[in-house]
């Protein structure tokens, strides 16, 4: 938490004291900042995430940080945000999901 408050960036969109969308530094390494964006479901399709991400990226550039997005390519809203911001793919990698089963208490 201390590192976020010292070097992190975050923005929120608010409607009548309700947080509707958030964009912040999810991970930081040297000058790199991973962008995390989330919008409350009822406020989606209003470009809130795009606007917050744009503000976030401008702030990164102002402070000489390198913003980057890390998401699955089937996450279409994230792809739309990346395209809106003018991002380019630097590299891609495979990820795998492992099933997690709840351990039973049976003996």
Automatic annotation (TrEMBL):
Any one GO MF annotation of this record: transferase activity
Keywords: Transferase
Cited InterPro entries: Acyl_CoA_acyltransferase (IPR016181), GNAT_acetyltra_YdfB-like (IPR027365)
Domain of life: Bacteria
TM spans (from-to): none
Protein name: GNAT family N-acetyltransferase
Organism field: Halobacillus salinus
């Amino acid at each position: 938490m201390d590192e976020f408050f010292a070097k992190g960036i975050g923005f929120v969109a608010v409607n009548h004291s309700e947080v509707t969308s958030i964009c912040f530094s999810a991970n930081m390494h040297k000058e790199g900042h991973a962008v995390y964006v989330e919008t409350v479901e009822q406020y989606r399709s209003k470009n809130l995430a795009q606007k917050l991400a744009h503000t976030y990226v401008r702030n990164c550039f102002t402070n000489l940080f390198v913003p980057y997005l890390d998401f699955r390519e089937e996450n279409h809203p994230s792809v739309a945000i990346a395209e809106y911001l003018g991002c380019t793919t630097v590299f891609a990698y495979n990820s795998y999901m492992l099933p997690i089963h709840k351990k039973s208490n049976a003996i």
